[in-house]
Design a protein that fits this description.
114 residues, mainly alpha, elongated, DNA-binding transcription factor activity, DNA-binding transcriptional ArsR family regulator, DNA-binding, WH_DNA-bd_sf, ArsR-like_HTH
């Protein structure tokens, strides 16, 4: 999963994944919107391949790239799990703070009453 998060950390790679979500594309098609060489795009694609976020197939002369969503699903599941853990902790903290406030409120009212 570290490879997935590392790959997703780069905005160019995220943009490539967004483009591949629309359908398969060749390296030259993926390179079009970027001001970088096809060689630089190929390096990004290798990172995405190592993270199993994309795959390449050979069709005659071209090697189109395809989005593989399985690892994205794994990462999303990990994030969802940890989001729930932190939401639960936040809820418990809110309850604890409310309890502390409730304990202080009667005492402070008694102190201000003549």
């Amino acid at each position: 999963m570290s490879l997935v998060f590392s790959a997703l950390a780069d905005p160019t790679r995220r943009a490539i994944l967004e483009r591949l979500a629309e359908g398969d594309a060749t390296v030259s098609q993926l390179a079009e919107p970027f001001e970088m060489t096809q060689q630089a795009i190929s390096k990004h694609l290798k990172v995405l391949e190592r993270a199993h976020l994309i795959s390449r197939t050979r069709t005659a002369q071209s090697r189109p790239c395809t989005l593989d969503t399985e690892q994205l699903d794994v990462a999303a599941g990990w994030i969802a799990l940890h989001r729930q853990v932190w939401a639960d902790r936040h809820d418990r903290l809110d309850e604890h703070l409310a309890t502390l406030r409730a304990r202080r409120t009667p005492a402070s009212k008694e102190e201000t009453t003549p």
